[in-house]
Amino acid sequence: MAARTPSSFLINRKTLLILILPSLTFYSIFFIYPIIMNVALAFTNRSMYHFYEYDFVGLANFVEMLSSADFYTVMGRTFFWVVCTVFLQIGCGLFFALFFTSPHLKGRGIYRGLMLLPWAFPNVVMILVWRGMFNPSFGVINVLFGTKINWYNSPEYAFLMTQVINIWLAYPFLMLLLTGAIQSIPTELSELAEMFGCSSLQKLRYITFPLVKPILSYGTLLTSGTAFMQFPVIWLLTRGGPGNATDIIMTWAYKEAFYSQRFGYHAAIAIFASLISLIFALFAIKRGGVLEGIK
Amino acid sequence: MGRSLISKRAITRVQAILLVAAIVVAAGSAFAAAWFLAPVPSPTTVMTTTTVPQPTTITTMPPPTTVTTTTMPPPTTIVTTRPAKVTHLTWWAPIPEEPRRQAYLKAMQQYSEKNPELLLEFHHVDDLPEKLKLAVPAGVGPDFIRWAHDKIGEFKLLDLIVPIEDYISPEFKKQIPDYIWAAVTLDGHIWGIPETAESVALLYNKDMVSAPPATMDEMIAIMRQYHDPAAGKYGLSYPANVYSISCFIHAFGGYYYDDARDKAGLNDTGTIKGVQYLFEKVKPYMLDDLDYGAQAALFAEKKAPLAINGPWYFSVPTDAGVNWGLAKLPTISGVGPLKPFMGVQAFMVTKNCKDIGATVKFLEWITSPPVSVDLSVVTGNLPVNLGALEDSRIKNDPIKSVLAEQVKDAIPMSKKPEMGPVWGRGYDALNTIWAGTKSIVDGLNEAQKLVEEDIRKMHE
User: Fold this and answer.
1) Which of A12, A115, A148, A258 has minimal CB crowding within 10 Å?
2) Is the whole model's pTM more than 0.80, yes or no?
């Protein structure tokens, strides 16, 4: 190790700092500043009627949110929505990843490419296409299954429909993530296991699962975060309806705050939702070993 | 190891400073270029380019007299044809279609040729209200805009537009009917120059219906005759939403939001009766699906003899080859005519306007015949100027003449921001009632409660 004087170390530090300065500046302007402003907004009564002149109202927005009866119903539904989404998306992703990495399957590259298609299309367009497919009068879903279900009028079916579409939109990402993880498992391990007479199920249980676990928890973290903050799927399909049967936190917040153009209140709900998401993330990092292997 | 690698490859202080300087110079020149090439000149650049010797702003002049014509010295010493004092007026509107935009540009050019002291500039702007909210307070907004009248309340509240009743000439005032002036009047002031109006009306398939129904009883008879869901045929194509079902609510004296009394009326007796009438008498002959596309397709595919829809839809059945005609909405016997919501496109003068007098003068010209009729021929919109309505090109138009009659029986949409919650909660309520999850009375009562709560919080 060559001896370095403190001053040369300092210069290098400075050099590095100067070099990241441009991107740091833009990051601050376009990410950090809006976040700070949003937090500040949450403590004001800024709205259509208090647009240029607004007051600091302390925690009033948060108190209002927590004292709303609907809030708890919606939160409960949001958690149910998140749990369903995460389980089904991870399940589908893992199933397809295992299926399409199977060495016995011929032409799996092509299948995998096809399975990734939902990811390649813009979400909003695909949601609108699905909306047409679920249309009760001329949609292909009812024709295909020979049913006469009005998907938009029944709370249960509407929820099911939003779940199906949400899963369809997101599984390719998890599939891709897990495919990578599964393929990075050394083949020697599974060959060795076969030599010891392990069944496929045992190989899955004792080799594949433990080795993809970090990636799996990373996927769970991302999925639960996006599911919690989901807006376009619900809004474009049911707008939270019928009634408020499919409202989750973000669509409810939109109705509460933007029908009456109350920006401060909406900021408060958004921050609260972000905090919940952050708790998910911290939990996943602490317990799930999400950041394992990342130095 | 990593650290020593960095130190070996790290650039020197001089190099770093040079690099940053280069970035700053590049960014600076990019900003400067963007600033000078920007299509929207800020008021300051206008001032410098027009070579006005004394920078007295035009807004400080006494209101009704236009600076450009009265105080301008004769351009004897100036060689250029353009007068020394040029007022540069910019306006914004969402007009993405090329033929329509060309029609407006042509009209603007015509006016500029006659009034060389006025320089007019148009910008097609999407998402106009949001951009206006940022531009006008910053002093870089347009001089005037065109937008639907129902945003007047919000624009007024945010101090974006100015009242213009003092600038409107008495002759022009007489050319616009009172029910149109009502749409742009709020709190005793006039906030816009009305250009065109629209509302829903009754479309009928001429091959299926010989004469359009004049009463609801006749209409129900026609709907019953054709309604056969098993064969994919329906009595009526009607994308029922808060806007389009307003005709039933108004017929029974109901209302959504009363600007004058500052009151929401979702559970008003008239409103409830209107919705009940819709569900009892009309819904049975409709496709059980509120999706706009699903409903709109029925008439275009000749699966329904009648449709209730507005001018934005007229090209759809035409393109689909339907032989259709337009009629006024029918009358409910013993109750009265169906009165739809009316939307008025109006020119509004912003707070940034450099010369309100000259602007209003131009707006009076562009919304009067023959210019407004020329524009109408291209845009397909119905002008509101009485003189324009007398023009043979409007009077003999089978669609526009009917629409002109229909808007006489229409109610202007509410102009206040309090209508926001009514649109939203009303939409949710209509869908809930349609789905059968709640009864009409319960659904509307609940929506009213939510709206009142929203409005209360809005003012807090």
Assistant:
1) A148
2) no
